[in-house]
Design a protein that fits this description.
There is one protein chain. By secondary structure, the chain is of the alpha+beta class. The protein has a domain of 151 residues. It has seven helices and eight strands. Helix 1 packs across helix 7. The radius of gyration is 25 Å and the shape is elongated.
């Protein structure tokens, strides 16, 4: 029983590692790759709010003005929708599900007026990690919950058209779902090989657990397994 529990913990741990790695790979990919599967929606009234849905990624952004929107970075014409249509895309864990962030979170990191707020979630098959960003009036007046990379690494990624902000805040139950999903994928071939090995041992008259010859006994004299 203890050995089985150890195996379950091991596969869940490996599933969690793959879960994080997949989310970070989606966070790393260039905007040009995001564009291939993206659908964008923009609220037709102020404050300008954008939702971008792509494979493995969800972007939510709100801006104090009309001019700029993340949807235009995708070089496409976004679909303008009303509040009800847009809010249907807001997940429960998002600040957008509880009102306009520019109103509910009106202060920037330096105490000035907040003019941009965004959230980006990553993961597959469910969103499992996300980060938040808040922008004030100045170029340095910005906070983010993304993992801070060294400047040299950020510049290297940027030069190669990769993005460089990685999420670290877990989303539940998405994180648990993905962890179990990837853990199960790893477990299936191992369980299949184990079942095949036990079957071959039984056909050869060996103990399925330790491969010791059983003879006429129904119980293994080596390990005690029936």
């Amino acid at each position: 029983m203890k050995r089985r529990a150890t195996k379950i913990v091991l596969f869940l741990l490996l599933g969690a590692i793959i879960n994080v790695a997949v989310a970070w790979l989606f966070a790393l990919r260039p905007w040009s790759k995001v564009q291939e599967t993206a659908r964008s929606y923009v609220r037709s009234t102020k404050p300008r709010t954008t939702v971008i849905i792509a494979t493995g990624e969800l972007y939510l952004g709100q801006y104090g003005g009309w001019a700029w929107s993340e949807a235009y970075v995708l070089n496409e014409t976004p679909k303008f929708v009303d509040d009800a249509q847009l809010s249907s895309h807001f997940p429960y864990w998002s600040a957008f599900a509880h009102g306009d962030p520019l109103v509910t979170q009106s202060q920037s990191p330096e105490g000035s007026r907040l003019w941009q707020y965004d959230e980006t979630a990553f993961g597959w098959p469910a969103y499992s990690l996300f980060y938040q960003s808040a922008h004030g009036n100045g170029p340095s007046d910005r906070s983010s919950t993304a993992i801070a990379l060294p400047d040299s690494l950020r510049q290297l990624l940027a030069r190669n058209n990769f993005r460089f902000e990685f999420p670290r805040t877990p989303i539940f139950p998405g994180f648990a779902i993905n962890t179990i999903f990837y853990g199960a994928i790893l477990w299936l071939p191992v369980a299949g090989l184990g079942a095949l090995r036990r079957r071959r041992r039984i056909k050869r008259g060996l103990c399925p657990a330790c491969a010791y010859p059983l003879g006429e006994s129904d119980v293994c004299t080596e390990c005690g397994k029936a």
